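Summary of Year 1 activities. Much of the first year was spent building the evaluation harness for sequence design. The harness presents a backbone, in tokenized form, and records the residue chosen at every position. We chose the following record to illustrate the format because it has been used consistently in internal testing since the harness was completed.
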């Protein structure tokens, strides 16, 4: 990815995390580029916000890969490391998501309206990381055969929902949430 594009996306993300308000002028100033440079990379503000959101999903995918690769143990251990890293990553991005989907619901959702397919494809990448470890566990006899796509989607949904719940009410500490979630998942798939 081009350095200027990265700087623009980082500036947009920072502004959304900080205040929830983004203009092309503010993004350009925060990125240290001219307003016209932003338009070289993004057609309009909606595309910029969408691409910023997609870049966060891509970042989460990379975090899952690193977490899985860092553990040389069992599929169960790799799954636990991924879920912990995923929860941490999503939880750390809650201010951004809260500002993106928060108070001005209709106008804030505009950037992603009409882009459902792109969002589904991005989330499928995250889900596929879980599916890979689940399939590996089945192949090694750690997990019973199951609908990997459904379990992977359930893990993704549960982590995102548990992280999002913290916006509205205090959650238990991560050290308590993730093991409970892992135990719930493992009850259904461990031999």
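For this record, the design step produced the sequence shown next.
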């Amino acid at each position: 990815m081009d350095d200027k594009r990265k700087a623009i996306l980082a500036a947009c993300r920072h502004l959304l995390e900080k205040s929830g308000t983004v203009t092309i002028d503010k993004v350009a100033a925060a990125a240290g580029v001219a307003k016209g440079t932003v338009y070289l990379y993004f057609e309009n503000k909606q595309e910029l916000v969408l691409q910023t959101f997609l870049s966060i999903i891509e970042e989460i995918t990379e975090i899952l890969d690193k977490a899985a690769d860092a553990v040389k143990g069992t599929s169960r251990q790799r799954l636990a490391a991924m879920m912990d890293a995923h929860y941490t990553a999503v939880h750390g991005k809650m201010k951004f998501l809260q500002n993106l989907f928060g108070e001005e619901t209709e106008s804030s959702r505009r950037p992603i309206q009409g882009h459902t397919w792109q969002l589904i494809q991005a989330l499928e990448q995250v889900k596929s990381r879980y599916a890979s470890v689940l399939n590996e566990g089945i192949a090694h006899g750690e997990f019973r055969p199951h609908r990997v796509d459904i379990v992977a989607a359930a893990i993704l949904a549960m982590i995102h929902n548990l992280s999002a719940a913290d916006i509205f009410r205090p959650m238990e500490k991560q050290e308590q949430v993730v093991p409970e979630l892992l135990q719930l998942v493992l009850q259904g798939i461990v031999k």
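Residues 44-189 form a domain with the Tetracycline Repressor; domain 2 fold (CATH 1.10.357.10). Quantitative recovery figures across the full test set are reported in Table 2.
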